[in-house]
UniProtKB/TrEMBL annotation:
Domain CRAL-TRIO: 280-456
CDD domains: SEC14
Domain PRELI/MSF1, residue spans: 2-175
Protein known as: SEC14 like lipid binding 1
Gene: SEC14L1
Amino acid sequence: MVQQYQSPVRVYKHPFELIMAAYVRRFPNCPLIPIFVDSEVVKEEHSDDGAIVFTERRCKVEADAPRLFKRMAGVDYLYFIQKNTLNRRTRTLHIEVVNESFSNRVIVHEICNYTVHPENEEWTCFEQTASLDIKSFFGFENAAEKLAMKQYANSIKKGKEIIEYYLKELEEEGVTHVPRWSPPQASPPTDPANGQWDKRSHKQTQRYLGDLTPLQESCLIRLRQWLQETHKGKIPKDQHVLRFLRARDFNLEKAREILCQSLTWRKQHQVDFLLDSWERPQLLQDYYTGGWHHHDRDGRPLYILRLGQMDTKGLVRALGEENLLRQVMSINEEGLRRCEENTRVFGRPISCWTCLVDLEGLNMRHLWRPGVKALLRIIEVVEANYPETLGRLLILRAPRVFPVLWTLVSPFIDENTRNKFLVYAGNDYQGPGGLVDYIDKEVIPDFLGGDCLCEIPEGGTVPKSLYRTAEELESEELRLWTDAIYKSASVFKGAPHELLIEISEPSSVITWDFDVCKGDVVFNIYHSRRVPQPPKKEILGAHGSLTSPAANNVQLIDRSWVLGQDYSIVETALTCKEGESVQGSHVTRWPGFYILQWRFHSSPACSASSLPRVDDVLASLQVSSHKCKVMFYTEVLGSHDFRGSMTSLESSHSGFSQLSAATTSSSQSQSSSTVSR
């Protein structure tokens, strides 16, 4: 049920302009609202005559909630987006606020309006409406809605006090009158009704996104709206969303599918924090022969890779696939950032970059099978998560061995991407029709015959003394993998993935949050007083070898156990479809061992892309195609924390006592849980 609030009309016996002068003083923070921690302006636009000002702020608010809610949410601060449209001509201020945090679980929508009093133009009216709809919050949706609206209503009462506080502050400074806006004398007044403001907005769209047809713009709006309603976490920018639409020829369903998979991947690997948190190993700085170098003739960032000079075998043996993959991920993230910078510099949309690959020195050493396998995996990751980011690929000085490498990798590259490849053998890149057609002569690197100094490592052979054993590489890759908050597991037909949680105190709360990345699964919760045997880890790979922990599969329930005797079901089984995000909680009745199980349900849905998957090609002989993937996070709340939070909720809202009794009285109820998508 949606909770709504409608404030009575508030009248200030002061002119609109003076009220606006007082209103802006509450930013970036306000001492009268302690929970309002900070705010920053992320966008500001002015109409040509200055009459209309659009301001977008990102506001940081302290999460003023009971302890249980904070523990479940895992945050101390919430973020909101505030969009203000001030029209000095009509003397109005329209404010719209929506939540950025937990937007897939909670929908907060607030609208405020400052207008001139209809009977006295020296007075100002204020109206405010708000709605709150909590779709999913571990079974406490109704109680949380009512509690939040109660606190919200209390905070609104301070609104009038805040304006009056700043009015008094202005008066003490000698400001008692602010003149009304008047149009500039040098130019006639403009009217937003004639489309002037709309044209300006359209120009902004053209500058950052390019020319879009009405159908393409409609697809972008619909996909972004879907993200705001369903996606938890950072919402990608319009430029990046548009790349996925273009990759699927603006087929909304196909674009949504690959974008959903990519967002799950980004969350799993914490890609949004990669540039700030990951430090490149010194080996990469010394022997990875690639780097950014100015831009091409179209303003696209230019990346140069001297692949022929790179010791791919040495890097794989010394660093492992995971570090090389992270290096490529950081390159792509930096590319996205440089595209945004060049868009601002050149005043036109720059959404992709140019890559120049120099193959001088390429030989059979580069066709080392583990190195090719690593390359194929990198290509797959880039194709799936950075579509339409490569504007052009210039391959120079291709040797005779190049067709062999091309035969191996080309099936894994999308056809649209392959069409962007230009291959030059020998010195064909020199002269008309070559490099100078795409890159200004002044920035052609010195090692290609140009005059520009290119500060890219020359590479060389990685010393074998730096090679690491298979056990060391596996341990390193496991560490990189487990750095993520969310864990990943594979579910096979006949081989479920199971997670053990030991509970020593009844009435503890088990919470979970998981995404179904591939295929459909059935989710179960079991209880046993017996200690399960040490888990069997079945990490499957080509030829039975160990692979990345992404394929982790753990089974705990012994085949000899009898349901109803050795263990019991404590929750109704839940079928979860591919792409769904599931959250829930379970209040335990007994101490002992609880087992969360994800079991194979049906054949995975076909991918929107027709390209073969690297894992399927390399491991098809040993791994069953009946495989699902889940990414999960769990936490256990102690009974004392749980009851303490319930007490806080009861004191805040009497209507919550019934829910409290239902979840804490184990003598009357076997369990209490909720599962929300």
